[in-house]
Write a structure and sequence with these properties.
alpha/beta; globular; 7 strands; 7-stranded mixed beta sheet
Length: 203
Amino acid sequence: MKNHFQQTCFIMGTPDSRRGPPDSGVEVAFAGRSNAGKSSALNVITGQRALARISKAPGRTREINFFEVSDGIRLVDLPGYGYAKVSKSMKGQWQRNIAHYLETRQSLCGVVLLMDVRHPLKDYDQQVLNWCYAAELQTHVLLTKADKLKRGPAQSALLQTRKKLQNLHPEASIQLFSAHTRAGDEALQQVLYGWLGLETTEA
């Protein structure tokens, strides 16, 4: 299967989406806690080791980072939330920026919400789901770091989280994912291809 994301490149980063690229075309945003593995997931699906910067210190992504897949098609890395060492005022600003982006960005067609499979649906994860549901955004939950659990517990976490999603965002889809083993990479790409209107067959 052709990987349409291999030519993805960084465009710009900004704390305020109103200063981002023109609000046209189509884009998918990646949201999640600071240690959920957003940067790692972006690097895996694009096949690029350093497209999104990865840091051992959570919370490095402090801006809304825009990446261009092709003309008019973008992936967006939102600031990670829930990082304890960031000031309350900074957390509040991040949350307001993320909320404004999710609620007003016209080119946004869907959100991939990443959660550590061992700690899903924390309070702010649920808040993001509420925002997405209210904005009628397609939402795909990625339970990351699936390699940290054996198959049985991982599947159990998937089923339990899927059940809880019914009360938060009934239309959201969900899958397991591991950036370390690349498990779930192709399934995620298929979701993104569908949302972004990309051809899934070989060129």
